[in-house]
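re the bet — no i am not wrong, look at it urself. input seq straight from the record:
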Amino acid sequence: MPFSEDGEKGVICSLLQAPGTVAPLCANLCPGVFYIQAHQILYDTILEWDKPGQEVDFVWLTQTLRDRNQFEECGGKETVCCLYTFVPTAANAKYYIDIILEKHRRRRAILLGRKLIDRCSDEHEEEGLGELENEFSQILHGTNGASLLNGASLLDYAQRQINNDDTLLGNRYLCRGGGMFVFAPSGIGKSVLAVQAAIEFAIGRVSFGIKPARPLRSLIIQAEDDEGDTIEMSHIVDHLKLSEAQKEQVHQNTWMEFVNDLTGHAFVRRIDQLLEDQPSDLLWINPYSSYLGADIKEDKANALFLRNWLNPVLTKHRCGAIIVAHTPKTNFRDTSDWKPSDWMYAGAGAAVLTNWARAVLVVDPTDTYGVFRFIAAKRAQRIGWQENERFYAHSREESKLLWVPADADQVALAKSKSKTTPEDLLKLVPVVDPILQEKLFDIASKKGFGEKKTRAFLKILEDDGKVHVHKIRRATGAKAAIGYAQLQSSEGE
């Protein structure tokens, strides 16, 4: 069979030297394209390297192969070591990729030719040659066994019917093969949200105002909550007062897996395996930062994880992904005038996240305790709400983990508090003698300012030069306290 040992080594060496640059070029390169078995193993293992900005560590690679009893199969230390220096630079990676793709195409043609000979030689063969035509066309005109042209003319699309079976949530709000982000701060009940929605979607019930197309199967992958937390959250099936038939649907349509020892490509491979064993309509990943394996602000790392690794898995298993991610831990931005287009980028990390997502839902705490604003920040017209936002609250019943729609009084109070501005807080800050931070927070709380908004507004006022932070000595000699006073204008001085 035709193959190029040098071409295969060139790809592997380039990938070892510059994984962040070369891996995207290998997006459609499966291990089977390599002819030499050892190269298939090495290539598949190297793709698990979770630090794309650094050269693949030799110790990590050899130890990983040893752990899988594949080190000797790959030629041992000498062979692996030589691969690191086979080519002087990764600049020609595309050239080597084209070589091995061409050799793979020739091998496929040979195998198909043998199949054709057998088919033509068998006088009792009734299936004919028609089914081989498409495969011949792919080999002649495609790359890696697939045509480069997968689309159609706009006229062809205009004449097609939308496949409603692809819709999972809302009015094509989320479809098979697509993904959405749920952005929310830490500690507000993101895991409860995921579990509750998965339960309600499992029985075909509307959840948080989002209608599932049918009862949906959910696979939840999570890293933050232990078994006790999950047991506590699972009692949502009791809080929702489900019938025995509905509970059986939840049993059939939900599955929770704890994964806290994998990141990057290795994690996506595990997802692929789990979906093989547990076919699902919705894949929940909670939280995103636990599995990326890189700085969430790195565009390349996010694009590699979402587009090159996760997207093919979603397409393969025909499921949609709902990824739970954090908003920035400290946020002093005044969001009172934000539009939905601004909220799209409310999550911590790179803009790549929002660009990849088909839909974005943001959960923002209000200044009313236990009440949260849900904002349909992307594709809001398809979510099924009459407006872009809704309000939900934690259940007031003690020890009950459950999200419920906020009542009219809670919504009215949350909306009235949301209209306050930094200038309203400035009126509570004295002009001459600074006020202690603790006292200011207490007064602000009684006026309807939550701690989050008070801190945010103080930061804005400080940046605008309207208040000054003072260090106030304590009588006991302890650490100085923080106080605030208005800055007088030059005219007043």
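see?? Residues 487 and 493 are 10 Å apart (CA to CA). told u. also Confidence is low (pLDDT under 50) at residues 143-147. so pay up
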